[in-house]
Amino acid sequence: GGNYRIMVEMPGIKNIQDAVELIGKTAQLDFRENPSEDKEATLSAMAIFNFKKTDLNGKDLQKSQVQFSSETGEPVVGLKFTSEGAKKFGEITTRNVGKQVAIFLDDLPITAPIVNEPILSGDAVISGKFTTQEAKNLVIQLNAGAMPVPVKIVEQKNIGATLGEESVQKSMRAGLIGLLLV
To answer: Distances in Å between the alpha carbon of 47 and those of 10, 40, 64, 94?
Structure first.
């Protein structure tokens, strides 16, 4: 059906509660528009928190990946939207040519590129003097926020290191009993 389960094994984790919180936390990605009508306005760091939400979010993002510009060879971030996401993104970029469209992850801005032209194809590129590592980090954040459903922990098992030692002892005991019987 529509139910999927993911099994996570984390050997060597000392703080179980931190691991449970990390696994159960789903990053929420959303795209926001610059509310200012002035295309020339420069934004302060605080003004980005006044951007208004759109209906484009992580479920509309199919994938993001590091690419390299054919013109400069610099790393860029490529975005591919679903068909519905492409329509929404096209409308947003048409309205915001010359303005910033911010991408937020869990209500914190991760990037705010300027729209150079309407993007109607559903394939976009974020450029901006990234190092390869910065581009990879942005891709990780975007893909993490593209998960369309929240994660719910159904079952948790904590297995200590003594399990292996206990198994060895039982096996040796069974081997000795078997040897005595033979």
So the answer is: 40, 14, 26, 22
Characterise 106 by phi-psi region: left (phi > 0), alpha (psi -120 to 50), beta (else): left
Mean pLDDT per 10-residue section of the chain, whose length is 182 residues: 71 74 71 75 65 90 91 91 94 91 86 90 88 88 72 73 76 93 92
10 Å CB burial of residue 182 (0-12, 13-18, 19+) is exposed
